Amino acid sequence: MQPTAPDAPILFFDSGLGGLTVLGPTRRLLPTAPIVYAADYAGLPYGKKSDEELAARVPALLGRLAERYQPRLAVIACNTASTIALAHVRAALDLPIVGTVPAIKPAAAMTRTGVIGVLGTEATVRQPYVDDLSARFAGDKTVLRHGSPGLVTGAEAKLRGDPVDPEVVARAVAGLRDQPGGEAIDVVVLACTHFPLLKDELQSGFGPGVALIDGAPGIARRIAYLTDGQSWPSTTTPAAAVFTRSDQRRPPPLEALAPYGIGSIETI
Asked: In what helix (H) or strand (E) does residue 132 lie, and over which residues does it extend?
């Protein structure tokens, strides 16, 4: 096997800007890693798409991106895409693929009341994969789920510097709290990479007695493990962001992405 070139990037892929919450902790572990961040704005929001559509769209798009950027590893930094298309992507691409799954296992270890909330997109929370995680790691717990597409829109708005509609957050909180047993929730899994962008708003809505957790730190550690011993540049270079072209939404201003180490934007 050929050694990995130092300038071969890590490719992060998401429907929008949620994957930045995975990029951040990865940067802290691998500060000089070259990075390409790809957002499928032409397909956003994924949570409203059918499983069949995403199972076809995501591998095809990642194939184009892999051919264009020649990454050493690809990260599907999107719970919806991972729960639906991860196996299809791994079958289609000849490179390591890291997926994103709801952090139900650590939530089950944390809960004191035995009641866990899973907050994701509509597509994620209906997946059999979530049933399997719940059965394997939280079989003796109560796992309540709610799909909130409005939080994706709210997170994108917040990152652009626009106000977040408080009703969107309130509806998401009520979607879990109002279910039978919901008043006992003490841990909520943020099962969409967009949602940690609204962590302050969600924490305020659920109250201080509820812990909010997501899988980003674990994903970053997995990326570091899979690339251990590989060559990296000696200095940090700005990441590149690429957006699929959309008539409905434009890429955010560069200054909104700069805190994540992104130094350029292009559309394809």
From this structure: helix 128-137
